[in-house]
Amino acid sequence: MAIQIAANPVTPGVDFSDGIRLLARLARVAERSCQESGISLPQYRLLVSLSAGPRRASELAAHVGVSRPTLTSLVDGLEHAGLLRRVPVPSDRRGIQLEPTEAGQKAMERAEEVMQDRLLQLVDPEAASAAGPLIDALRAALDRERGDAN
Fold first, then answer.
1. Ramachandran region of residue 80, left (φ > 0), alpha (ψ -120 to 50) or beta?
2. Ramachandran region of residue 10, left (φ > 0), alpha (ψ -120 to 50) or beta?
3. Which of 2, 26, 37, 131 counts the most CB atoms within 10 A of its CB?
4. Would you say 77 and 46 are in contact if contact means Cβ atoms under 8 Å apart?
């Protein structure tokens, strides 16, 4: 006998419980895929945030969803590996921005290839393409919530 979960009281008939549980499992797949490609999932998220252009560290912590000490550790590790660099802010003598190096851009792309390959091993291409509209809707909603398009 299947357990019935009450529908979302805000939107009757919509229940994201299975999707939420699936996201937790997919996060683990993404973490393993990133590790296989040579970077961690938090490092990947940081490189993705920088792919739109240089940013100050103060902006990145909130954007990537990590604490300042964690961000410092991520930046130090990526810089040591040659995947990002610190560059001066032209309008602020003391300001520093972070930007990915060419190797950092390639590391991000490699992680995306490994993650995509892994996801395509899990589902057939038809099922993957059917997810497109939901992915687009969620991306747009998250972009609106965050106030940008990155």
1. alpha
2. alpha
3. 37
4. no
pLDDT above 70 for 135? yes
Give the pLDDT of residue 7: 47
Strand order from edge to edge, sheet including 92-100: 55-56, 92-100, 84-89
Amino acid at 101: T
Domain positions in the chain: 31-118
CB 60 within 8 A of CB 71: yes
| Residue pair 113/106 in contact by the 8 Å Cβ criterion | no
Query: Is 15 in contact with 8 (CB distance < 8 Å)?
Result: yes
Q: How is residue 32 written in tokens?
A: 């393993």
| Residue with token string 């038809």 | 126
- Determine the CATH number of domain 31-118: 1.10.10.10
| Location of structure tokens 């991306």 | 139
